[in-house]
């Protein structure tokens, strides 16, 4: 049984089936079979913004068929073969928040397949992963909308999937109302989200 991250090969390739057997203290993600350590516990401001987003989105989706999930929540992204066997899944991520509209994608382990909307909060230590690695992963997996929340600048970078490519929308800042092309009724007043 794997109980220490040092027991894993740094350059090994692991599947979701392997991931399920580990009993680690550290949280990690699998990116195309490679181990990615997660940043240490988020800071206080990150937690406050995450909670405000969760509350605001929760009230917006109360009467909706879509469901909101908050980390830690495993999202298993499928490769081009689209097999859903635990042995054939090599990417498992834990987005800060995600919205899933297809109930068939939700099981007792989390989500299998691309959520409709993924929201990642950028903080020191995770920006490269969220802005480069996960951007490419989410685009490839077919996530319909991706938001990166920049805590330092108090703005949100939004991307919509159009013809299998993310297209950047105008960034929104703390004095704006955040809207979503995917969910036209969604309106979030960012001054209530980015309160210090």
Automatic annotation (TrEMBL):
Residues 18-190 form the Putative restriction endonuclease domain. InterPro entries: Nuclease_put_TT1808 (IPR012296), Restrct_endonuc-II-like (IPR011335), Uma2 (IPR008538). Keywords: Endonuclease, Hydrolase, Nuclease. It holds the Pfam family Uma2. Coiled coil: none annotated. Transmembrane segments: none annotated. This is Uma2 family endonuclease. It comes from Taibaiella lutea.
């Amino acid at each position: 049984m794997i109980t220490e991250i040092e027991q894993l090969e740094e350059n090994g390739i692991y599947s979701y089936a392997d991931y399920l057997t580990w009993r680690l203290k550290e949280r990690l993600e699998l990116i195309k079979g490679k181990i990615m350590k997660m940043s240490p516990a988020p800071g206080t401001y990150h937690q406050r913004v995450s909670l405000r987003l969760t509350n605001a989105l929760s009230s917006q989706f109360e009467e909706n068929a879509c469901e909101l999930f908050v980390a830690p929540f495993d999202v298993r992204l499928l490769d081009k073969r689209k097999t859903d066997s635990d042995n054939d899944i090599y990417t498992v991520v834990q987005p800060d928040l995600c919205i899933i509209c297809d109930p068939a994608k939700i099981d007792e382990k989390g989500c299998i397949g691309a959520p409709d909307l993924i929201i990642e909060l950028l903080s020191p230590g995770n920006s490269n992963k969220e802005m480069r690695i996960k951007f490419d992963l989410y685009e490839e997996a077919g996530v319909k909308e991706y938001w990166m929340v920049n805590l330092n600048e108090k703005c949100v970078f939004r991307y919509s999937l159009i013809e299998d490519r993310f297209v950047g929308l105008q960034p929104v800042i703390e004095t704006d109302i955040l809207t979503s092309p995917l969910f036209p009724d969604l309106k979030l007043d960012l001054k209530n989200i980015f309160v210090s």
